[in-house]
Automatic annotation (TrEMBL):
<dbReference type="GO" id="GO:0071555">
    <property type="term" value="P:cell wall organization"/>
</dbReference>
<keyword id="KW-0328">Glycosyltransferase</keyword>
<dbReference type="InterPro" id="IPR029044">
    <property type="entry name" value="Nucleotide-diphossugar_trans"/>
</dbReference>
<keyword id="KW-0808">Transferase</keyword>
<comment type="similarity">
    <text>Belongs to the glycosyltransferase 2 family. Plant cellulose synthase-like C subfamily.</text>
</comment>
<feature type="transmembrane region" description="Helical">
    <location>
        <begin position="113"/>
        <end position="133"/>
    </location>
</feature>
<dbReference type="GO" id="GO:0048868">
    <property type="term" value="P:pollen tube development"/>
</dbReference>
<keyword id="KW-0812">Transmembrane</keyword>
<feature type="transmembrane region" description="Helical">
    <location>
        <begin position="66"/>
        <end position="84"/>
    </location>
</feature>
<feature type="domain" description="Glycosyltransferase 2-like">
    <location>
        <begin position="328"/>
        <end position="524"/>
    </location>
</feature>
<keyword id="KW-1133">Transmembrane helix</keyword>
<dbReference type="GO" id="GO:0099402">
    <property type="term" value="P:plant organ development"/>
</dbReference>
<feature type="transmembrane region" description="Helical">
    <location>
        <begin position="173"/>
        <end position="206"/>
    </location>
</feature>
<protein>
    <recommendedName>
        <fullName>Glycosyltransferase 2-like domain-containing protein</fullName>
    </recommendedName>
</protein>
<keyword id="KW-0472">Membrane</keyword>
<keyword id="KW-0333">Golgi apparatus</keyword>
<keyword id="KW-0961">Cell wall biogenesis/degradation</keyword>
Length: 700
């Protein structure tokens, strides 16, 4: 029981005596300290908490902190153990995985080079660990140079002589070569960073001045003028090229058929290149359904499927009735334009005969589906809001995105039409139209819904096509660019900025500098990269990239690491396109998941709630056998759309680079390089996760 203090009695006496004299209260229990009170308000003053803390309280605080630390360590250990379990299953037992095979020699050559670097780094690491255990702690450049001056004083032995020879060879031969290559890559890195900064400043200027493409003579659909009311809608052809698009064919056809445009002045072409007969019947049924509703829509299927998408579009433009149309709008199979899309884009052509293309921005229905889609959204937001918008405002030129754009048919015909010589037919026609003097407009406020690849395999193939095609096109277009009649500064913009800097230099220095040179400098400290190259400048560039998507700021570190990881695929694709290897001609349709927008889901629910009203109209004029066959195909499509057990893949180049970076991070510990260690560690773990296909949609 606590001792009695008589505190109220003492305070009462003191208050009678005036309340200003200090009072000393002594307690009977010697375990309590003496407290001095200067007055009645002293008890309410802030007290130093450390003064009254006894040994038992300190022990409890330490125990709580230790419990938190143990919990954090246990969580990290559990995560590490789960990662090791996944590595064991996918690498050693190959459970539910397949190895991503390289069809071409160039991919295998890159893998062999990475393996050579990995084996060499492991040998050097083992040798230097042995030297470290013997007390030869000369792992920094300055210490090694000092050590070489004192070699004659050291006691000679075989291992010591080999170590000295390695130090001399490293300083005299390896370090100068790595330093020369690293300086070249750093210079390219800085040039590309300046270009990125200029683009961001241009975007800020557009935002500050509120610059937007204006419709000459005013918008005829919003203006109350009598002349605007007499505006006659031009003839518009809408094309939907597709190939085996089982998941999304109905969404794109439904969205395009609901475009708000006079029905007698629009024609929709569904250009089906599917080689699956079942999918062909499903698409035909969807086209028949909308034709019965009064939509002017036709179905086309090629017998000779050559040239991929370019061949499909070129074949459709050869139809006799195309000459009656003035503009053509193109939508890929997963794109869902809003009903007012044509009213927001086509009027820009009015009284502007030099305008050849109006491009709209993409928006994504599945941008928050997983980490992979979030990182893609960051890249594409920067591409549209910064690159496309700035080039459209100041240059009147940008690369056509292949979809969600409206072309003047005259511009297509004068530029040579769709050519099948590359896998980037959209960029090809844009460059040729620019060389013929046509201007482009980008509308950042007009957005068209589409999908992002949700699996790494689909994203990887898409990026390979997007980065090999431009290099292939550059080889073919360079003579035409040099001999064209456009202004000299436009030629320089095409050659140095559009092709070389943004399509060739970017993947080259990203892969070479951060995936090859940086880990090598850990074993050659004389060529160590400065801190601002691996930390400060990349972080600033990542911040600028992520500004157009401010909600993605929490993902800035994964974005930086993942972009470096994707540099392997982009570098390999760039080389294959530049030297015209087999993979540069490879076209793989990007896998879709069939994600719907909210409006599509509501419409689908409404259709399901009224089956008796829609079903009689679905196949009016069709025979009973066709109806029965289509019903069976629809049932089959529903069964196919159910999730099936698939397998993930493992990617050997990414795994080899993961082990190379992790080996370099262990070597950086010997030199006590903190920032280098953390960067190499996290980058190596990122390569490991990507190599094991642990990012994006999990297939199994």
């Amino acid at each position: 029981m606590a001792p009695r203090l008589g505190f109220s009695v003492l305070m009462g006496k003191e208050s009678k005596n005036g309340g200003g004299t200090p009072v000393v209260v002594k307690m009977e229990n010697p375990n309590y300290s003496v407290v001095e009170i200067d007055g009645p308000d002293a008890a309410f003053r802030p007290v130093d908490k450390s003064r009254g803390r006894n040994a038992k309280q300190v022990r409890w605080v330490l125990l709580l902190k230790a419990h938190r630390a143990v919990g954090c360590v246990a969580w990290l250990a559990g995560l590490f153990w789960a990662l090791l379990g996944t590595i064991k299953k996918r690498l050693f037992f190959r459970e539910g995985v397949t190895v991503a095979t390289e069809k071409l020699g160039k991919g295998k050559l890159v893998l062999r080079v990475i393996r050579v670097f990995l084996v060499t780094s492991l040998v050097i690491l083992g040798f230097e660990v042995a030297a470290y255990l013997k007390g030869w702690h000369y792992f920094e450049a300055s210490a090694a140079a000092e050590y070489l001056h004192r070699i004659p004083m050291a006691a000679p032995n075989l291992l010591h002589m080999v170590y000295v020879a390695w130090l001399n060879f490293r300083a005299d031969y390896i370090a100068p070569a790595i330093m020369g290559l690293s300086n070249f890559c750093v210079a390219l890195f800085l040039v590309q960073s300046v270009d990125r900064l200029v683009l961001c400043l241009g975007c800020l200027w557009i935002k500050f001045k509120r610059i937007k493409p204006e419709i000459r003579g005013g918008d005829p659909f919003k203006s109350p003028d009598i002349e605007a009311l007499d505006y006659k809608c031009p003839m518009v052809l809408v094309q939907i090229p597709m190939c085996n698009e089982r998941e999304v064919y109905d969404q794109s056809i439904s969205a395009v058929c609901q475009l708000d445009w006079p029905k007698d002045r629009i024609l929709i072409q569904v250009l089906d290149d599917s080689d699956d007969v079942d999918i062909q019947w499903l698409i035909k049924g969807e086209v028949d359904k909308w034709r019965q509703k009064g939509v002017n829509i036709i179905y086309r299927h090629r017998l000779l499927r050559t040239g991929y998408k370019a061949g499909n579009l070129n074949s459709a433009m050869g139809c006799e009735y195309v000459k009656d149309y003035e503009f053509v709008a193109i939508f890929d199979a997963d794109f869902q334009p809003n009903p007012d899309y044509l009213k927001l884009t086509v009027p820009h052509f009015k009284d502007n005969p030099e305008l050849g293309l109006v491009q709209a921005r993409w928006s994504f229905v599945n941008k928050d589906e997983n980490l992979l889609t979030r990182l893609q959204n960051i890249n594409l937001c920067f591409h549209f809001e910064v690159e496309q918008q700035v080039n459209g405002i100041f240059m009147n030129f940008f690369g056509f995105n292949g979809t969600a754009g409206v072309w003047r048919i005259k511009a297509l015909e004068e530029s040579g039409g769709w050519l099948e010589r590359t896998t980037v037919e959209d960029m090809d026609i844009a460059v040729r139209a620019h060389l013929n003097g046509w201007k482009f407009i980008f509308l950042n406020d007009v957005k068209v819904l589409c999908e992002l690849p949700e699996s790494y395999e689909a994203y990887r193939k898409q990026q390979h096509r997007w980065h090999s095609g431009p290099m292939q096109l550059f080889r073919l277009c360079l003579p035409a660019i040099v001999t064209s009649k456009i202004a000299l500064w436009k030629k320089a913009n095409l050659i140095f900025l559009f092709f070389l800097l943004r399509k060739l230099i970017l993947p080259f220095y990203s892969f070479t500098l951060f995936c090859i040179i940086l880990p090598l400098t850990m074993f050659v400290p004389e060529a160590e990269l400065p801190l601002w190259v691996i930390c400060y400048v990349p972080i600033v560039m990542s911040f600028m990239n992520i500004v157009p998507a401010p909600k993605s700021f929490p993902f800035i570190v994964p974005y930086l690491l993942f972009e470096n990881t994707m540099s392997v695929t982009k570098f390999n694709a760039m080389v294959s396109g530049l030297f015209q290897l087999g993979s540069s001609y490879e076209w793989v349709v990007t896998k879709k998941a069939g994600r719907s927008s909210e409006s599509d889901l509501l419409a689908a629910a409404e259709r399901e709630s009224k089956p008796s009203m829609i079903q009689p109209q679905l196949h009016r004029g069709a025979s009973e056998s066709e109806i029965g066959q289509l019903s069976l195909l629809q049932e089959k499509a529903e069964s196919v759309s159910k999730p099936k057990k698939k397998v993930n893949k493992i990617y050997r180049k990414e795994l080899a680079l993961a082990f190379l970076l992790l080996t370099a991070s262990v070597r950086s510990l010997l030199s006590a390089q903190g920032v280098h260690f953390y960067f190499l560690l996290f980058q190596g773990v990122t390569f490991l996760l990507v190599g094991l296909d642990l990012i994006g949609e999990q297939m199994s």
